[in-house]
């Protein structure tokens, strides 16, 4: 089966059902978030690229695994009296 291509206007109106503007499609193309190519002054967008972008933007309903919790750090001692270091013992 051959790959389907959309013009920017078709991508905005047909694929995204008018939910985003043609300008937004141009911005996505220039950022590299959707793939396509230029033919003269027109840009043709790959349908698979639009599908990949849409899937990437969908809400993930499966809960993400929680990262492992780091071990607790030992509490720091707060000393009210400064430490005194003697160079020799008192007489």
Commentary on this structure:
- The chain is an alpha+beta fold.
- It has a domain at 5-57.
- The chain is 32% helix and 13% strand.
- It has 3 helices and 3 strands.
- The chain has helices at 8-15, 22-31, 47-57, and strands at 5-7, 36-39, 42-46.
- Helix 1 packs across helix 2 (22-31).
- 13% of the residues are buried.
- The mean pLDDT is 84.
Q: Layout of SSEs?
A:
Blueprint: E1 5-7, H1 8-15, H2 22-31, E2 36-39, E3 42-46, H3 47-57
Helix pairs in contact: 1-2
Instruction: Tell me the number of helical segments per DSSP (H or I, 4 or more residues long).
Output: 3
Helix content: 25-40%
Largest sheet properties: 3 strands, antiparallel
- Outline type: rod-shaped
Mean pLDDT: 84
Q: Any idea what the radius of gyration is?
A: 30 Å
Assembly state (oligomeric): single chain
Which characteristics define this entry?
91 residues, alpha+beta
Please summarize what this structure is:
With 91 residues, the protein is an alpha+beta fold. 32% of the residues lie in helices and 13% in strands. Helix 1 packs across helix 2.
């Amino acid at each position: 089966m051959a790959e389907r291509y959309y013009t920017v206007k078709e991508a905005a109106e047909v694929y995204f059902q008018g939910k985003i503007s043609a300008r937004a499609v141009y911005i996505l193309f220039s950022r590299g978030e959707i793939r396509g190519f230029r033919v003269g002054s027109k840009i043709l967008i790959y349908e698979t690229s639009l599908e990949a972008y849409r899937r990437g933007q969908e809400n993930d309903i499966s809960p993400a695994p929680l990262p492992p919790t780091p071990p607790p750090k030992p509490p720091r001692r707060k000393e009210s009296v400064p430490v005194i270091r003697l160079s020799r013992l008192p007489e």
